[in-house]
Amino acid sequence: MIKFFRKIRYNLMETGKTGKYLKYAIGEIILVVIGILIALQINNANEARKERTREVNYLKNLKSDLISEIDNNSAFAKYRYEKAKACTVLLSAKEPTTIEDVEEYTDRYEQVFIWSVFVPNNNTFKELLSSGNLSLIKNDSIKNALLELDKHYAAIATGEEHMRREHQDYLYDQNIENIEALGFFDMTTPAYGFPERLTAADIPKSKHQKLIEDAQWQHNDEMFKNGLRLAMMNNSFLAGIHKDLAEFIKTLISLIEEEISEE
User: Fold this and answer.
1) Apex CA 175: angle with CA 173 and CA 176, to 5°?
2) SS3 helix, strand, coil % of the chain, rounded to 5?
3) CB–CB of 166/234 below 8 Å?
4) Spatial distance between the Cα atoms of 112 and 82, rounded to a whole number of angstroms
5) What is the pLDDT of residues 184-216, one digit of tens each?
6) Could you tell me which residues come within 8 angstroms of residue 82 by beta carbon, excluding any fewer than 6 positions away?
């Protein structure tokens, strides 16, 4: 470029044909500028295509995660609902008077006791956040829905932690401190996993009265019943969240599919 202007200057000085060479110089400059602009435009277009390809790949991975999340949330909605149902059955049941009653009663409260936490399959979203690539998702509706889903997952984790403390204080501790725990499991033989589950027919008659009295005490203990009431409320609340999220995720998947189709 510098050599070009030197050449122009030399020609102007040598010939004095200012107008002719000035027009020539301006034309050359315009061509150079146009070439630079075209090169920049091509480069920007290539970068935009690369960015769009990355965005679509993320969207496809998000869709894959979310499809599994429909089943995940639906399963936990049912899991929480069944636990809430078990609580209501225990609260409305009659006092156990036979070993068969105790077996049924024990099955119910152990259903409430079993603890599982919800683990979302949101690896792609976490990668987007940790890598700073969330800005690749240009569709604001999708981006906002993903952030909203993440807020719901945080709320579920908080609710589970709150419920875990109440289980510990009002259900687990009361059971362990005051009655014979795990009376319907075979404690004579170790196992890989849970010991063998016993039925009423497997329980020696010498243990019947003790198990019946334990079940009656627990059935009538107000703290234990309050624990069941709290468990019923908490499980019902979380069941509703999971049920609603399953539908919310279906809508989010539709938004992603629509965005991918515009590729």
Assistant:
1) 65
2) 80, 0, 20
3) yes
4) 9
5) 999 999 999 989 999 999 999 999 999 999 999
6) 111
What are the tokens at 138? 């240009």
Burial of 175-211, coded b for 16+ CB within 10 Å and e otherwise, reads beeebeeebbeeeeeeeeeeeeebebeebeeeeeeeb
What is the rounded distance in angstroms from the CA atom of residue 164 to the CA atom of residue 240? 18
C-beta atoms surrounding 62 within 10 Å: 23
Q: Which residue has the tokens 């027009």?
A: 23
CA 30 – CA 238 distance, rounded (Å): 67
Residue pair 162/234 in contact (Cβ under 8 Å)? The answer is yes
Give the model confidence (pLDDT) of 121-166 as tens digits: 999 999 999 999 999 999 999 999 999 999 999 999 999 999 999 9
Q: State phi, psi for 192 to the nearest 5 degrees.
A: -85, 100
Q: Which pair of tokens denotes residue 182?
A: 């795990």
